[in-house]
Every structure is written in structure tokens, then in C-alpha cells.
# Entry
Amino acid sequence: MIFEMHCHTRYGSSCSYMSPDELVKKGAEVGLDGVCITEHDIPWDKKATEELSNRFGILVIGGMEVSTPYGEVLVWGLHEPIFDVEDIYELRRRVDRAGGVMVAAHPFRGAHTFIRWDPVEGMIPKIDEALQLPIFKAVDGMEVFNGMAPNWELDLSSAVCDNLPIMGTGGSDAHNVEAVGDCVTVLQKRVTTEEQFFDEIREGRYCAQHRLLDRFYPDNGVVPSSGEGQSDA
Ligand SMILES: [Zn+2]
Ligand SMILES: [Zn+2]
# Structure
């Protein structure tokens, strides 16, 4: 199943240019099986996402993009606004109690200190230093493909994820309809509820795809299938 895991709409993100209807309609048009709406700090009501799911025929799941001292985190399972996070581990405990999941959003956005320029080899990621970011101890996964990330950031994220016990997701961070589905997460199993979706993310049973650049994570040369027809979930 192909999921868009990171998007913003005008409903909850003043930085976005699309309505929830436009987002989900475009998601269905570009072949997605599911869309996560992740507004900044503001939750989505489950009834509202169910209504969108029914109307457009793909699974819509409400998450949030929460600001923390260690960077922004995509959070699922909580249905109240989350502001002023001081302790990411306390947030982790709340998410665990709710049965949700957490994914580090674009962990290296603007983090030029984690690369160095070599006149022969070009951009060299400082992987050992990047691995020490505390956020990686609090999440179930990390975004390796973010639709707004430049190539050096995609390379750094992938190299770091290779060395962590968590998997890498893809999400467009779409703020307009043109970007919907640029980066996706491909689940191995078919899911029909948000609880099943959380289980698959928690267990790392997925891979990431950057559809604009034709890149995959893990980059093992295997083109992911959508998982349709393997419904044991
Ligand atoms: Zn962000
Ligand atoms: Zn975002």
C-alpha cells in the first residue's frame, strides 16, 4: 500500500495552499492508497478523516507535526493539540499510552554542520556525528525522503538510517497539490485501520520511495510492490 505520510492543509497549517479535499482527491488521482495529514501541532478529528476516507476511497489518517527541542516529529495516535514540548521522552510516553507512533521529520533540514565539502569527492556526510542526535532514541522511524529536501540531505538521512535500528519513511511535506505523492512510504501489508497502520510503522515493515528522483530506501534494487493482495493484516 502506498502512503503519503507528511502533508499540510489550509485547515490546520497557515503555510499550506490546499484544502483537505484537494489533498485527498489528488492523492487518489496519483495512485496513493492512503494519506496522512500532519498539520503543525494541531490534531485531526477521527470522524473528519473517516469522512474524507469514505468520500475519496483511500485511507486518510490524521497525525501531527510537533515541534520539540530536538527537531520536528511526526506524531500519530494523539488527538489533542501539542504545544511547548520540553521533554521528547515524555511525549514518547504519551504516544505509547495512546498506541501511536513517532517519526523524526526531515532530521537534517538546514543541518550543514553534518556535512563537509571535499574538493575531490564533494559532499561528505559526517555520519558518526549525525548518529548522535538524541531524537533518534525517541522515534519509531525517521524520514529519509522528504519532498523539500536537497540531495545532500537525502544522502545524509539515508546513510544515517543505514546505521540505526529504525526504518526510513518517505513523505512529500506537501503544502500544495502539485507535491502530493512525490515521496511515499510503501507498506508490505494491506491495512484498513489506523491501528493497523501504526503496527506496520512500529514494526518497520515498509520502504520509502522518492518518486521524483526514482530513489528507494533501502536501496536494494527491489521495486516495492503496493502490497495489494497480500492481505494478512
Ligand atoms: Zn517540518
Ligand atoms: Zn511538514
